[in-house]
Structures are given as C-alpha cells and as structure tokens.
Amino acid sequence: MKSLTTMEELRNNIFTLACVEESVTPFVSCYLNLEKGDGCGIKTLDDRLPALRSTITGEALSHFDAAIQSIKAYLASQLMPDAKGVAIFCRHYSTGRFLLPMQFAAPLPDWIAVYDTPHLFHLMAMKDNYHRYVVLMATRNWVRILEVNLGAATVQTWTRHPGLRERVGREITKEHYESRNRAHTSRFLKEQIELLGDLMKAGKHTHLILAGDPRLTGEIRQALPKSVAAKLIDTIPAASRDAESDVVTATLSAFVDWEEQESQAVAARFVKGIRTQGRAVAGAAACLEALRQRRADTVLLAQGVSARPGWLCSACYAIRITPHAPDSCPACGEKSLRQIDPVAEITRLAGQQECPIEVVEHCDPLMALGGIGCLLRF
Ligand SMILES: [Zn+2]
Asked: Ligand 1 centroid vs 328 CA: distance in angstroms?
C-alpha cells in the first residue's frame, strides 16, 4: 500500500540517491509543492520544461524527455490526497530507468534540476527541519500520544480518562469527590507517562512536545522522568475541542522554531570554529575537500544557498570555484575538468557519509563566507 514517506525511508533513500553514479545521461530531480491542489504539480513542471529542455542536446534530450514522461505519469495517477510535497528522482538510459518518488505531509518548494547526479539539498533540508517527534496531548477527557514523522501524524495510543466520566453520587460529598478525583487523575497521568516513556524508548525517539490543557501539561511536565524530560522541546496550549490536525500543525511550527534555534547553536559553533584554526572551514571548495577526506562533522548550508559553479579535475579531484573553466587543472596540469554544482556535490558526499546537514536560516558570518561551511572532526 502507498503511504507517505517516513523518516526512516527518507534516510535510506538519501543514501541510495547519494550513491547514484554520475553520468552524462541527465538525472532529473523534481521537487514540487502540492499545496495549491489538483494538477498544480504538473502545471509547474510544464512551465519549467522549455527552459530545461533548451539546455540539453543530442541523445541526452531523448533520455530527458522519457524521464519527464515517467514523472508526469506518476504525478497524474499516484499522488495521495494528504501529500503537500512530492520529490521524484528519475533517469532514463538506453537499457532501463531509475525512478524514485517520495510523497510528504510537509511541503516542499517547487524546484527542478537536471544534473549528472541527484540533487539532494531539499531532501536534506526536509530531514533537518521536520525529522520526527512524539506529541502527548492531554485534555480533561482524554490523552493521546502521537508520532509526527516528517509532518505526518499517526496515533500511537488513545485513552479516555475514566475518572472524569463518573457522576457525583449522593453518597459522596463534593469535596470527597474532588480529592478522590485528583488522586484518580494523578494515577491516570502516571500510567500515561509510563506508556509515553515506553513508546519513546521503543521508537528511539529523541524529541517530545506536550500539548493540551496548561494545568495538565504542567502537572505532566513535573512528573516526567529525567530521561524523558531531557527530550521535551516545547509545551503548547490546546483545548479538547481543537481539531487534532490543528494541534499537529501547531506542534510542527514549534518544532521548526526549535530546530532553527538548534541551527543557530551549530552556526555559533561554526563561527567559533572558524576563529580557532582547524575546527571549521568555509566555502564550497574547502567543504568538499573536508568531505572527501572524511573529516566533516556537520555541513552548514544557508537557506537558499546557490554557490557559483565550480570545476572538478577528474585526474586529481582538485576543485576550483570560478565562473570560467581554467585551461587546465591548477593542481596537476591535466585538462580533464568537469563543471560541477558545488551544493549538489556537497549534499551528495554528505549523503554518502551520512554526515548531517544543518540548514541555517540567518547567520551573517556564514553568509559573508559564501553560505557554505563545515564543522570538522577532531
Ligand atoms: Zn588535477
């Protein structure tokens, strides 16, 4: 059965795509935003097509056209109603085809590229921004534990509060009822917290958001065991009448905000690293070199970065970032230079090594250094 892509599948697919061999046969990476509804993906693709086609000649053009046909056929028949973003990776060659589609509950930008290898930047950004986390929603009537995985929510458990449904009988005073009820609620919450801990442990979850009645979420926060409390990233108010999807949307923006703070922390480490020799490097060429030597700990890319084109020597792998091709490799003198897109190369190498990429929203020092940086292992 078709379903939206999960974090685990995304991780595996990034690795698969990062290992696709470079070739003169064009590889199409097609990211489309589906928030505008039926047919918007195909329309965006059609609008971009003439410009893309004009850059391709010879035999490559027929392979490109065949890849676009495969992508369109997929878009026409396979999209799920709850997908807000789709990413399709396709290459047709003489003997077969490579096709890897993914649909997400989180939106993607419209972005189509034709290159020697898959272009992974937006998959990396999706992995960095949305990840997966657990939400415990608590209202006076029920508790729900959800997993949000790349923007899609699945219910793990759903429990109705037994105590609050009881009617106040004549035989017990109101006061008696209230104190009994409080004990009941505490015991109930204690059970839910234990369940939450078990689920998070089993699912190897590292992030938690609490949502619901502020008094209850406050009580839950106090009662969380240390190991779970360390994973709590935010608490947001919600009422029992709020639609679950609205609460999930609120947790998503809380998670993205939190992730942005994390990015800022990584950016601060980077700035410090640049000041200390050997802890960080800046610029596409230095980052590619660090990745190639397997010395990269985390790659930083400014949101929307597009580096100037570069030139890679096929003989010695030296890289020069200049708009015009050098006559020969400045390092070894060979004439076998290939034009590269530095961001595509960086994300591909990072994907092969499972090196994390941090997409940074605002960081002036990083921007001043070209929007590309890398923390080094030491
Ligand atoms: Zn060379």
From this structure: 8
CA distance 188 to 219: 12
> Measured in angstroms, how far is the CA atom of residue 278 from the centroid of ligand 1?
24
Which helix (H) or strand (E) element contains residue 305? none
Residue at token pair 């917290």:
193
Running DSSP on this structure, what letter comes out for residue 164?
G
User: Please, what are the domains in the chain?
Assistant: 1-129 (3.30.960.10), 130-242 (3.30.420.60), 265-378 (3.30.1330.30)
- 316 C-alpha to center of ligand 1: Å? 4
Residue 326 CA to ligand 1 centre (angstroms): 11
Encoding tokens for residue 221?
Answer: 């926060």
Q: Which backbone phi and psi does 13 adopt, to 5 degrees?
A: -65, -35
312 Cα to the center of ligand 1, angstroms: 8
CA of 309 to the centre of ligand 1 (A): 17
Distance CA 25, CA 8 (A): 29
Long-range contact pairs involving 220-223 (C-beta distance under 8 Å, separation at least 24) = 220/136, 220/138, 220/189, 220/192, 220/193, 223/189, 223/190, 223/193
This prediction has a pTM of 0.85
- In the chain, alpha helices (H): 7-18, 40-53, 59-77, 121-129, 174-202, 214-223, 226-229, 244-275, 284-292, 342-353, 364-368
Instruction: Give the list of residues 6+ apart from residue 67 with CB closer than 8 angstroms, or none.
Output: 26, 28, 90, 91, 92, 97
Whole-number Å distance, alpha carbon 332 to ligand 1 midpoint, is 4
pLDDT tens track of the chain, all 378 residues? 578 999 999 999 999 999 999 888 999 999 999 998 878 889 999 999 999 999 999 999 999 999 999 999 999 999 999 899 999 999 998 889 999 999 999 899 999 999 999 999 999 999 988 888 999 999 888 889 999 988 888 877 787 766 544 444 444 556 666 666 777 778 888 899 999 999 999 988 999 999 999 999 999 999 999 999 999 999 999 987 888 888 888 998 899 899 989 999 999 999 999 998 789 999 998 999 999 999 999 999 998 787 778 888 888 888 888 878 888 888 898 888 888 899 999 999 999 999 999 999 888 888 888 899 999 997
